[in-house]
Design brief:
nine-stranded mixed sheet; binds 4'-deoxy-4'-aminopyridoxal-5'-phosphate; alpha+beta; D-amino Acid Aminotransferase, Chain A, domain 1; eight-stranded antiparallel sheet; D-amino Acid Aminotransferase, Chain A, domain 2
Length: 305
């Protein structure tokens, strides 16, 4: 359960948590065209608080809205400031930020007409998305029977609300079978991403991740690529198959919520030794150093409250 906070930012102002409601005719509720972000704020090592890569998340939010043909009635600066304001109002030093752009009520046809474009920003405390143990020991993943969206069917580069029906179906399918996360194949049968994470594998010391062709351009993915470059870990962005993944020495998921989560099994096959390997460990440790402000080289990724 999401822990209730005091305030939610809605359409330009902070309102009490319990009053952040919408009408049942809210267009997005029926047809799914909305755009959202998932952002984290971390307590830094020096006792301060910083939002991680806020600018990139706001840029992606605006890209998602643009792809979805939604005109956000605020500037990037206003939305970024509102994220900070909401955290402060809730006295949250660490937590998750969820900006949501949605089409309000008005006409009910598929064409949204002149229905208002509304914006909400919600913040709440959120620990490790897949659990602390997942970060430590790794998780068990399963290839879902649901394919990731085809690029001409849904807009795969956008965090559009309705896109996530696909993720919910895949996630429920594999969780019901006792696994932790769903790996999804693209419509040509290659590994693409997970229900809410990008994926990396390691073979003979070389990192491999799927190209951005049909997956969400993950900000954590980008951090991992930067970390790999800095540490001179060879990396290729190339399609791979599920059997290549089975035979990997290491694998992990990346995402704002999931952070860097090792994968210890895929489809009941152990990955490597069935526990987080050295490359995964090194990247995970670097990631946490960065988000917690322990790395001076990436200070510009932190937006202090
Ligand atoms: N793919 C999908 C489908 C996602 O929902 C997410 C989470 N936003 C990601 C990848 C990872 O993106 P990021 O690292 O920017 O959170």
């Amino acid at each position: 359960m999401v822990e209730k906070m005091d305030k939610i930012w809605m359409d330009g102002k902070l309102i009490p948590w319990g009053e952040a409601n919408v009408h049942i005719l809210t267009h997005t509720l029926h047809y799914g065209l909305g755009a959202f972000e998932g952002i984290r704020c971390y307590k830094t090592h020096d006792g301060k608080s910083a939002i991680f890569r806020l600018r990139e998340h706001i840029d992606r939010l605006f890209d998602s809205a643009h792809i979805g043909d939604l005109q956000i009635p605020y500037s990037k600066k206003e939305i970024a400031e509102a994220c900070k304001e909401t955290l402060r109002a809730n006295q949250l030093k660490e937590g998750y930020i969820r900006p949501l752009i949605f089409i309000g009520e008005g006409v009910m046809g598929v064409h949204p007409g002149k229905n208002p474009i509304r914006v909400a920003i919600i913040t709440w405390p959120w620990g490790a998305y897949l659990g602390e143990e997942a970060l430590e020991k790794g998780i068990r993943a399963k290839v879902s029977s649901y394919n990731r969206h085809h690029v001409n069917v849904m807009m795969t580069k956008a965090k559009i609300s309705g896109n996530y029906v696909n993720s919910v179906l895949a996630k429920r399918e594999v969780v019901r079978m006792g696994y932790d996360e769903a790996v999804m194949l693209d419509t040509e049968g290659y590994v693409s991403e997970a229900s809410g994470e990008n994926i990396f594998m390691v073979k003979n010391g070389v990192l491999k991740t799927t190209p951005l062709t049909s997956v969400l351009p993950g900000i954590t993915r980008d951090c991992v690529i930067t970390i790999a470059k800095t540490k001179r870990i060879p990396l290729v962005e190339e399609r791979f198959t599920r059997d290549e993944l089975y035979a990997a020495h290491e694998a992990f998921f990346t995402g704002t919520a999931a952070e860097v989560t090792p994968i210890r099994e895929v489809d009941d096959r152990k990955i490597g030794e069935g526990k987080p390997g050295p490359v995964t460990r090194e990247i995970q440790a670097s990631y946490f150093d960065i988000v917690k402000g322990r790395n001076p080289d990436t200070r510009e990724w932190l937006d202090y409250l």
